[in-house]
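Per your request, structure below.
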């Protein structure tokens, strides 16, 4: 895979219909919201989770495309595997290691061993070389600053969170059934957003990509994951979520040809009608202002 030589900035536009795009565990799993503006929020962690899930499903067992942060993963065990793969015995107490120093603590890497472990982790795990990771626990493989960063997603218009009563025609235990006196219906609550269009921004740094080994092929896979991450992550709680636009600004250099914010300001999302509530992507008009585009910047619309 070829080395990444161009800076990229991108805009994500995705929507939700009759679902909860990202519940807040500190607020009874209600849809996240900015209390001052009423704008809906989706965390960068939530978006990265969906990218990780897509890569895990589509690149299963392919060398170099494992996922470090995944369900039921024991992170320290993954770090231990790095040193096993490198043939470094962290329990040994050599007279002198690569750095000419005695091991300070048994079972923990030090000096150049940490750098070797970091490189192994970047080579093995897609999400480490993409988003970075803190791997200084356990055996210690250091820290990685990822070349790809995402912001929180914020809804284009304020959202309304609706609460619904739901019933379940069953009970969990016999004792509960006796308490209900033959009526096995139990009540529950569900919160949804009728409709919300969310906007997030992303950045890709070639300089950090060199440090982690993130390649142009990895970038292609990232954009594929962003385009399709909702297709493989369906949930009744999340309703209908769809990626509507992935607008990419490709720079002609590593440093970039324009500030990211100036490029993002060229992406305009406006209401078609303001007299009625929005309930569809068709209620918005998306336009990219390409007039007077800075020299060396290429615009790509990867979705619809």
């Amino acid at each position: 895979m070829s080395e990444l030589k161009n800076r990229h900035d991108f805009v994500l536009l995705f929507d939700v219909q009759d679902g909860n795009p990202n519940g807040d565990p500190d607020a009874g799993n209600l849809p996240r919201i900015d209390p001052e503006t009423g704008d809906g929020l989706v965390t960068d962690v939530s978006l990265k989770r969906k990218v990780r899930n897509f890569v895990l499903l589509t690149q299963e067992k392919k060398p170099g495309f494992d996922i470090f942060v995944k369900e039921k993963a024991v992170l320290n065990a993954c770090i231990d595997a790095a040193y096993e793969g490198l043939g470094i015995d962290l329990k040994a107490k050599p007279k002198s290691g690569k750095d000419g120093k005695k091991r300070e603590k048994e079972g923990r890497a030090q000096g150049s061993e940490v750098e070797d472990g970091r490189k192994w982790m970047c080579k093995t795990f897609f999400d480490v070389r993409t988003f970075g990771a803190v791997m200084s626990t356990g055996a210690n493989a250091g820290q990685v600053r990822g070349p790809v960063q995402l912001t929180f997603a914020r809804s284009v218009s304020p959202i309304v969170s609706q609460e619904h009563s739901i019933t379940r025609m069953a009970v969990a235990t016999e004792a509960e059934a006796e308490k209900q006196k033959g009526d096995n219906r139990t009540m529950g609550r569900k919160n949804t957003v009728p409709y919300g269009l969310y906007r997030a921004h992303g950045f890709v740094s070639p300089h950090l990509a060199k440090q982690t080994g993130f390649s142009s092929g990895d970038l292609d896979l990232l954009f594929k994951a962003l385009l399709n991450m909702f297709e493989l992550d369906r949930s009744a709680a999340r309703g209908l979520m769809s990626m509507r636009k992935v607008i990419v600004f490709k720079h002609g250099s590593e440093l970039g040809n324009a500030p990211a914010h100036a490029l993002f300001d060229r992406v305009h999302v406006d209401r078609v009608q303001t007299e009625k509530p929005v309930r569809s992507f068709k209620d918005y008009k998306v336009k990219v202002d390409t007039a007077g585009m800075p020299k060396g910047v290429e615009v790509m619309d990867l979705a619809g």
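DSSP finds eight helices and 14 strands in the chain.

Regards,
D.
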